[in-house]
Design brief:
Layout (H helix, E strand, L loop, with lengths): L1 H12 L13 E10 L10 E4 L5 E3 L5 E8 L1 E8 L6 E7 L4 E8 L9 E2 L7 E2 L7 E5 H6 L6 H4 L5 E4 L2 E4 L13 E5 L2 E2 L18 E8 L3 H4 L6 E7 L7 E11 L14 E14 L2 E12 L8 E15 L2 E15 L4 E3 L2 E5 L8 E18 L2 E16 L10 E17 L3 E16 L3 E19 L2 E14 L5 E15 L2 E12 L3 H5 L2 E3 L2 E4 L7 E16 L2 E15 L2 E5 L5 E6 L3 E14 L3 E14 L12 E11 L2 E10 L22 E11 L7 E8 L7 E3 L2 E2 L4 E9 L1
Parallel strand pairs: 1-7, 13-16, 33-37
Antiparallel strand pairs: 1-4, 2-3, 2-5, 5-6, 8-9, 10-15, 11-12, 13-14, 15-16, 17-18, 17-46, 18-19, 19-20, 20-21, 21-24, 22-23, 24-25, 25-26, 26-27, 27-28, 28-29, 29-30, 30-31, 31-34, 32-33, 34-35, 35-38, 36-37, 38-39, 39-40, 40-41, 41-42, 42-43, 43-46, 44-45
Length: 734
């Protein structure tokens, strides 16, 4: 079956589409220049897209752009650039004619309008999406001195982190590093390991990220397995004609703990790194490349790491209606094999008996290709095909009882077709084939595959109303386990009351197939023995939300609010459970659960004085069997930010609160001392930013203080959260 699918893919790629045939006759061109409304200067890097089509362009260093081969008709042009309001322009394209436009973007301190590609697998405005969306820009990543994506996800409203586990609105708890109820994509390509089904945050090219889109709620109708609680799609940067070389240098120290018994060294420990990047468009060929090396000595003994990543993306425009790309990445990580602390009294020390010479070594390799063929304004075909390899082992001899090793390959292939039915219905159709192959001492030699078809329709009967409906059918089969079918429907609607107010509704099903690791793990781990359970069922969720947003503009005061009520029903959740003698762990499907919640986001700006953001998410995650709170969940998440700009300087202050986790696995007390040490989390961050590039100085400088008050907390059982870190970074483009 795999060979047949690869043959189909090769046939599709080899199709020779060229301009000049009757299909491309009678078409027009759109040319223009994008300027800043305030300064009149051209805005390089502006994204210009024709709404509901695959046509678009990026403005060059003079602000110029051109979109070719546009069929005659009426369209909406979207121009978007970080820091500016999105501009919508109605245009009419005539056959064999060229439109000349001058577009003026207005500065916007509060981001409320964005171009989104993840919600419907095509370009659209965020105001047309019937689900809750959050965006992280590259500026937010850089200013916060983010070195791994998980560090910034904790700032997103409704999102919490427990180790490497992402929980969106309480969808997930802590699962000992196995499985993810959120799917992670890099330019639409899934990046979950083939064995564990988890996210390797150190494999991501932070320096090449343009933005991160977070879809809250079940997304399996388009993305299939693992989109149980949400979707995170990383959009990488597009090269521009002017080209650029960029660099970031940073270094900082972890201050010493307040408690003398936690001090394990006389010297201060550092986190230091360098990142370099280059991008340029040479006529038809675009190149993006970046590399980083980071050495983190950590705030705990025997918790250091050395990370390396190289990423490159090539794209070639064979014609204005046909382009293809190739992306590749290599990542390595050499880290200490830390699991639990020694005790609360020695929270910065590993547990007794830990072999301090043992290292955990991991390599990640990613290679994927994509191609897009535009037939006309309403019909285009896209193909994604790639491989993601993860290799893990520790440095014990292979015959050692604690030796762990797993090599996994994840193949992913997807063919998508976008079309228009009648006048008001847009269709997104596709097929997907995923294959996992694992060779592991821990999980054995296993394989798993999924075959899927999906369909989504968007209907706009009236201008203010947009209705979305779709489904996905997945067939999943894991070696020696029972096969199963999953049907994931969804429906949503958004109604614009006026230009500043709208309401939305959505409901959909999500699922997550059990990973190979959850089914076949057989290993001794930190005093526990993990045993197999090949009969695991897929996790299932039903998600419902209703919400609305409003914008108020009172001259110098601007306020944006968004309120959402959500409800999630979870069935067959896979959790690590302890057997009757408590020293054995088995992954099993626990009873049904449900989550009620409310989320309020407010952004405001008082012209030339200050801006602020605040969001609060309250959830009630309940096990329906015993009516107790689900384990490892925070009931309240509260995020606040205030920023004060002054000429080339900006002062930012952030405060995050997470309520105390009510329940954990009590059986952990058998192996983890002071396992129950947990408190509410209060974290204060601050930074001072010098924006030199806004004044034709090539460098931006940032002084960061994370966990400024040096507040002590645990982010998971037996693990002390990051203590105070003070750092300095220089970032520039040339």
């Amino acid at each position: 079956m795999k060979n047949k699918l690869n043959l189909i893919i090769l046939i599709v790629i080899s199709l020779n589409f060229v301009e000049g045939t009757p299909l491309f006759s009678e078409k027009g061109y759109i040319k223009g220049i994008v300027y800043s409304k305030e300064t009149g200067k051209p805005l390089a890097g502006t994204s210009i897209r024709i709404e509901k089509t695959a046509f678009g362009a990026i403005a060059n260093k003079k602000g110029e752009f051109i979109i070719r081969s546009v069929k005659s008709g009426n369209y909406t042009l979207l121009a978007s650039l970080i820091g500016y309001k999105q501009l919508r322009t109605e245009i009419t394209v005539l056959a064999n004619d060229t439109i000349h436009l001058n577009l003026y973007l207005e500065e916007q301190v509060i981001r409320t309008e964005d171009i989104i590609v993840s919600a419907s697998k095509r370009v659209q405005s965020v105001q047309e999406v019937p689900v809750s969306i959050a965006n992280i820009s590259t500026e937010e990543l850089i200013s916060r001195n983010i070195t791994k994506l998980d560090e910034v996800l904790g700032y997103v409203p409704g999102v919490s982190m427990s180790g490497d586990h992402i929980s969106i609105r309480g969808s997930s708890g802590f699962a000992f590093g196995i499985g993810s109820r959120v799917i992670l994509l890099l330019d639409g390509f899934p990046l979950l390991s083939g064995d564990v089904g988890d996210i390797k945050f150190d494999a991501l090219p932070i320096f090449d990220i343009s933005r991160v889109e977070i879809i809250k709620g079940a997304g399996s109708s388009l993305y299939g397995t693992n989109a149980l609680g949400g979707v995170i799609n990383i959009i990488t940067k597009e090269a521009t004609e002017q080209g650029s070389f960029k660099a970031r240098l940073f270094s900082g120290i972890y201050t010493k703990p307040s408690y003398k018994q936690w001090v394990y060294s006389d010297k201060l420990h550092t986190n230091t790194g360098i990142e370099l990047g280059y991008s340029k468009k040479f006529s038809r060929l675009s190149i993006n490349s970046s590399v980083y090396y980071i050495e983190d000595q950590s705030y705990r003994k025997y918790n250091d790491s050395k990370r390396f990543n190289f990423y490159t993306k090539l794209r070639y425009d064979f014609a204005s209606t046909f382009n293809a790309g190739l992306s590749a990445s290599i990542s390595t990580n050499n880290r200490a094999d830390w699991v639990y602390w020694h005790s609360l009294d020695s929270a910065t020390f590993p547990s007794s008996g830990t072999d301090l010479s043992n290292r955990a070594l991991s390599d990640k390799y990613m290679l994927f290709a994509d191609a897009m063929k535009i037939f006309d304004n309403n019909n285009f075909l896209s193909l994604k095909s790639g491989i993601y390899t993860t290799i893990f082992k520790n440095t014990y001899p292979t015959n050692h009882s604690d030796y762990r090793q797993s090599d996994a390959i994840a193949f992913n292939n997807e063919l998508q077709y976008n079309s228009k039915l009648f006048k008001d219905i847009l269709l997104t159709s596709g097929i997907n084939y995923t294959y996992h192959e694992v060779s592991s001492k821990t999980y054995g030699n296993r394989n798993q595959y999924l075959f899927s078809v999906f369909e989504q329709a968007e209907y706009q009967p009236l201008m203010p109303l947009i209705i979305t409906a779709g489904f996905r059918l997945d067939y999943e089969k894991t070696q020696i386990a029972k096969s199963n079918f999953e049907f994931s429907p969804k429906i949503g609607a958004i109604y614009k009351l006026d230009s500043n107010n709208s309401i939305r509704f959505s409901s959909g099903r999500g699922f997550r197939a059990a990973s190979i690791a959850e089914r076949f793990a057989s290993v001794d781990f930190q005093g526990f023995k993990v045993i197999e359970n090949p009969n695991l069922k897929s996790e299932v969720s039903w998600n419902f939300e209703i919400g609305g947003n409003s914008s108020i503009d009172l001259n110098s005061i601007k306020i944006y609010t968004d309120l959402t009520f959500f409800f999630t029903r979870l069935s067959y959740l896979i959790e690590p459970t302890f057997s009757t003698n408590s020293y054995y762990i088995k992954f099993d499907n626990i009873t049904d659960s449900r989550i009620f919640g409310l989320e309020l986001n407010i952004k405001g700006y008082v012209d030339k004085l200050f801006g602020f953001e605040t969001s609060v998410t309250g959830i009630d995650p309940r096990n329906l069997y015993d009516n107790r709170t689900l384990k490892y969940r925070h009931n309240v998440l509260w995020y606040n930010k205030i920023f004060i700009p002054y000429n080339c300087l900006e002062l930012q202050l952030e405060y995050r609160f997470m309520s105390k986790v009510e329940r954990i696995d009590e059986e952990l007390k058998l192996q983890v001392r002071d396992y129950d040490a947990r408190v509410p989390i209060h974290i204060v961050d601050t930074r001072l930013i010098f924006k030199g590039k806004e004044f034709n100085f090539p460098l931006d400088l940032v002084i960061n203080a994370k966990n400024l008050l040096n507040y002590y907390y645990t982010y998971m059982v037996g693990n002390l959260g990051m203590t105070r870190y003070v750092g300095f970074q220089i970032e520039g483009s040339f």
